[in-house]
Here is the input.
Amino acid sequence: MEMSDWLDIEKMIRKSGAPGPGKMLLAEPFMYDPNFKRSVILLCEHAETGSLGFILNKELTLTLSDVITGVGHFNAPLFYGGPVEPDTLHFVHDMGPDRMEGAHEVVDGIYWGGNFEKLKKMMVKDQLSDVSIRFFLGYSGWQYGQLENEFQSNSWFVDQVTHNNVFTHFPTSLWKDMMEAKGENYRLVSQFPEDPTLN
Here is the structure.
């Protein structure tokens, strides 16, 4: 059975909505770009200046203490945020501006960035036990209009952000889990082989 006999990917992508800040992007199943293959991206900015987000499901073998000092015993895992400026460190968390100055709200209850020196002091004092947080090396970026063009070429599904998906304990299976949660047709999509010639 051919993929086209099962469902129309293009129609499903259109139905999933348009990209925007505070949305999740799920790569279409046959995307060949190794940076984004079966990736799930938290889109933090989407404006006339361009778009920016972080890949949530590509955990690295590195930890926070491998790349910076002064974090005490807070040895969190690092994630590959994307191919842009891979030597920069970013973080997404659920602390509001009352606890983390300079935090940018992405969507209700989820924030990007803030005062990193204060964050390091909180790490040393073990004050993050009640915080959900993710650290990324690099980010995913698009120039103005580029993401819209990719959407028009059926590269991305769009989904709503949830706290559980951003801070999942099972990042490796996040793409498949989110596709399956969208319904029966999407569950079929999640089962497509990464190489369509194998189908």
The first strand starts at residue 23 and ends at 27. The helical segments are 3-6, 9-15, 64-67, 116-124, 146-152, 163-166, 174-181, 184-190.
